[in-house]
Specification:
With about 250 residues, the protein is an alpha/beta fold. The chain has nine helices and ten strands. Strands 2-1-3-4-5 form a five-stranded parallel sheet, sandwiched between helices. The relative contact order is 0.10.
Length: about 250
């Protein structure tokens, strides 16, 4: 498996190279644009490059068939740039090397199986830590939610689109999926929740949304718990509902 890394930061180049090589990838590093080369299974990009924007370069290389998929490994907090990047590939916080390695591992497993979805293994019995999937098309919110849940000791994976969420669930079951209700230009969180629950990719769902659609909220309550973004102590309620079990309530304090 081959990976192309495009970033002008030597520190980030080393971090990404280490994460990918640790998962068995052959890594090629570039400071900026890349010439036509044999297909790379994945391209990992910074957003700010010396002569172009990472999201533009990624889109160009995808269109030319140089890379099969794009990952943006960035510390940017520009919502417009992050949203543009999330429409092209997966956005991972530059401080979260473990998440990058985890995605590389999933991708490697999928490629080893010829890209064919397989029945994911059931998660081990809970020992306190949960496997959580966070799906939100606002990258800043998705990253903040993931950081909050990781601080509680949970294993968290992030998707900023409907398609990426489905890709991540092909090889893994999750204990809880935290879903936005409104995802721009895509099926809403209700549709995704039904797919995940029906296919047993998630044991439970929690909706974390700023939607003002009362009907959508009421429908969501039939599938899982609902926490309104922006509500007083919303973060605390979200942690409580993620950690809640059939036997009792969560342990958030």
């Amino acid at each position: 498996m081959r990976a192309l890394v495009v970033d002008d930061s030597p520190i980030k180049q080393d971090l990404v190279r280490g994460a990918l090589e640790g998962e068995g990838y052959e890594v090629v590093v570039a400071d900026a644009g890349a010439a036509s080369t044999p297909l790379f299974e994945v391209g990992v990009f910074g957003l700010e490059l010396p002569d172009t924007r990472g999201e533009r370069l990624a889109a160009d290389l995808l269109a030319r068939g140089v890379i099969a998929r794009a990952v943006f490994f960035t510390s940017s907090e520009d919502p417009d740039r992050l949203k543009a990047a999330s429409q092209t590939g997966i956005v991972i916080d530059a401080g979260d090397v473990a998440e990058l390695a985890s995605y590389a591992r999933y991708l490697g497993q999928r490629l080893a199986l010829g890209g064919t979805p397989t029945e994911p293994p059931k998660p081990p019995p809970l020992t306190g830590a949960l496997r959580v999937l966070v799906v939100d098309d606002e990258p800043l919110i998705a990253r903040a939610t993931a950081r909050m849940l990781r601080a509680r000791g949970h294993s968290v994976h992030v998707a900023t689109s409907f398609a990426v969420a489905l890709e991540l669930t092909r090889l893994e079951r999750f204990d809880v999926a935290v879903l936005d209700l409104d995802m721009e230009g895509e099926a809403n969180g209700i549709h995704l929740a039904k797919k995940l629950l029906a296919a047993a990719r998630a044991e439970r769902v929690v909706f974390y949304s700023g939607s003002q659609d009362v009907g959508l909220f009421m429908e969501a309550t039939q599938l899982g718990r609902v926490v309104a973004k922006g509500a007083r102590r919303a973060a605390r309620w979200l942690v409580r509902d993620v950690e809640a079990t059939e036997e009792g309530e969560g342990s958030a304090s």
